[in-house]
Records
---
Amino acid sequence: MIKILQFLNDFRRDESGNASIELLIAVPIMLWALLSTMVYFDAYHDEAISTRAGLTIADMLSRETQNITPAYLTNLQRLLQGLTETDNDPGLRVTVFECFKVDPDDPDEDCRYDRIWSRNRGLAPNHNNTRLRALSDRLPVMAHNDKAILVETQTDYNAEYTVSISPFIVPDLTGVTFNSFTVISPRFETSVCWERGPGDILCDADDI
């Protein structure tokens, strides 16, 4: 019995092999931290690209002096896909609107935002006046009859690795959607018009 107790006591105090056990515990944590860093860096990188792509599309539209056609809008979506390097078709919605004031001389009067036209590729539905006015807190202060272009984009991001151990600690980035919301004024024209067909041009606000 004494020999057994002595053996157990020696086994308890024996520290040989501790380094292997610590390595076995530490390596998975280190790998998880490394993959997490890579995934989150890639996600922020893609989000920045998505935002810049939306700004690029908005800047292009603001410089247009010709009417926007359905084919032009489709090509804008293709350009957005190329800029964001996404495998899926990105969403794009372009809305041209104006500010209306009952008393244009009253600087404190809020704008009533009226839609002129709104079209989308993969980001439905188009804005009507009700939907547009619901975004009033995100739209800029404008002068009476001033017109602006709202460009919204949507791109999907799927992480290369699933690194989440708990959605409350590190959320999973699979299926994340990046959205951009850009408002810009026309640079060379008072408005950018939508050409629905030969001779069918939409340049004035409607009450849809």
---
Amino acid sequence: MRETHFEDGKWWVSPYNFVPDVRNELSLPPKVEIHDATLRDGEQTPGVVFSVDDKVRIATKMDEIGVDRIEAGMPAVSPQDAEAIRVISGLGLKSRIFTFARAMAADIDMALECGAHGVIIEVPIGYPKLVKQFGWTWKDVFAKSRDTINYARDQGLYAVYFPYDTTRARPEDLTNLCAAIMAESPPDAIGIVDTMGCATPEAIKYMVRWVKDMTGLPIEIHTHNDFGMGVATELAAVTAGAEVVHSCGNGLGERTGNAALEELILGLDLLYGYETGYRLDKLPELGELLSELANIPIARNKPVLGDGNFIRESGIGIQYVMHDPLVMFGTHPALTGRTGEVVLGKKSGKASVTYKMDALGLGELSDAQATAALAKVKARGIEKRDILSDAEFRAIVDAVRTGDAV
């Protein structure tokens, strides 16, 4: 595990992430794996439909990045979903392939038929779900779970028990369910699922320690982003010992989406020091592919993937953007396959004008001309309420040189 906050020319994050007083408070596992659910949970984004070919393209790109596990779908949903899993399982990817299953033998059989390595076995445990949606008790959940878990493991599948809406479970229900499962049908791992994205990082850390104490099992964390805490709560789970984080590329998923794959990768690698080996430079390629196939644009300022992440309009520090970017950014743009860019607008300074003149090969302006050009740039940025195009800047430069108004 890396113990430094910077690598020359690549990234420079806060050194306080790595001081002993901080690190000694964490219970970081030696290794963390990513289980990506884009092909199942991501497709549950309203209006998103991935074809078999789409799913193959996405899975292949995730494998190039180095994602450890790919949840290729739920075969019970449709014949097309089952076909996609079969095709992906047959690609020979390094990523291990999982399916999503209800607690029934038929779903386990479908996972086997599709060639999966493992299965996520879902059951409800959140109290609102039990009382209002299903009319069950924890005993009903256990009765439906026991034989399915044992059958999946007997068939050689890696079985992850997934009592969803975990963060809204009554303590006695979760305690009783875990005790019964461990006595009669211990799975390979157990998930803590913040289905409604409503737990704080502190609550998640508490639950990871609690469930690990009750079961002794590897813990997997799966969160949604309803309060904007999806990535934060998953990383908090890691600091309490969770070994697997669940994600969706581009933060896709129901409602506000799931914890974003690309943000988790950078957080694990650069903020917590895991030498993951993931191809960070491939993340924008996956992001663009998902945006195209899901027909959901990536916000300009979205972490990791946004087109505006390495754009500088303000004139302060403009000289560092291209030549010493770690002065202005926590990561070098090239780390994630990007380049820095200087743009002109309301917030620009004279140094921005000088830089743009040189970048566009427009020669030099006198100090008075540069001052006049800057005034026109600012006025145009205010009028347009956006940044200027190169063509607009060239027109301003021509006007300043000829003394014409723009």
---
Amino acid sequence: MKHEGREPLIRISKRNRDAMPLWQSVLVRIIAILISLLICGIIIYAIVKLNPVEVYKAMFEGAFSTSKRLWVFIRDMMMMLCIGVGLAPAFKMRFWNLGAEGQILIGGIATAACMIYLGKGQVAPALLMIIMFLAAALSGGVWGAIPAIFKARWNTNEVLFTLMMNYIAIQLTSFFVSKWENPFGSNVVGIINPRTRIGWFPEVLGQQYLLNLIIVLVLAIVMFLYLKYSKQGFEIAVVGESENTARYAAINVRRVIVRSMAISGAVCGIAGFIAVSGAGHTISTSTAGGRGFTAVIVAWLAKFNTFVMILISALIVFLEKGAIEIASRYNLSDYVSSMITGIILFFILGSEFFVNYKVRFRGGKKEELK
């Protein structure tokens, strides 16, 4: 008996063995960015009647026009990269750590506490820097390990748990801000050690933010080697692919989950250390500034490759700086600048679909099923 049928209009299949070549995947992403810029240009002209080329030029100048702006761009880029590096081991294990915001704040609290209580001259500056680094990493690691322990033992939902931990960290930050507030009672800590600058990152080769760059790049290299070449990195990859396969291979899945999340939280805690000691020199509930969520895009687009994260972090920070510049220069609403950033990111994320999946249209042929 024969049955006639037609293929679906659109067939979508995941690329496995026939992965898209590197040059094609790069070309797809470039085309996506160009299309997004074209659409943004049309929207800009339709709304405010501005020349899109001048607007994009202003975005570039907002990030790179002066040496100061360039180093601020590098500072913020390194902060974004550090958080993305922290998320890499958790995400590669398919543990959806959305608690980077809280882990940053906890690391920032530990750093600020060291600056306040140990920054009175009784500890050498170099030793204080090491203590702050370790305190931030340890506190962030503990904060990250808490949801991992619950996940490993009771299979709790890590998305909800890590999000909940963010709100707890925000309240803890509010408590310490009120405890350390300046004498004027404005519920802000203010700049910590403004006269002595004890606990501040020292200038390296005359640059204020060069140490930020060095620390984060070292972390990115170490994390890349850890995930790609170490035994623990292999275990993370196996657990991410299949927990049952990992158990069959005699891998202690619970231990891998807790260990990996502790590492993830520790690196995000170090991001809090960099934010407080190397950038703002204060602590507040806005220290993380939403970057813990934005870094999810960085980690995901880079497919957990910390070297690729450098490029993605640079792009996202460039869009943020450029959006701020065009909003101030042309008196645009913040919504317009945010809309431009959102459209560009939407197309970049959309391009990943075509990189990872095949899209085929119906050829009109009939199939015979016997």
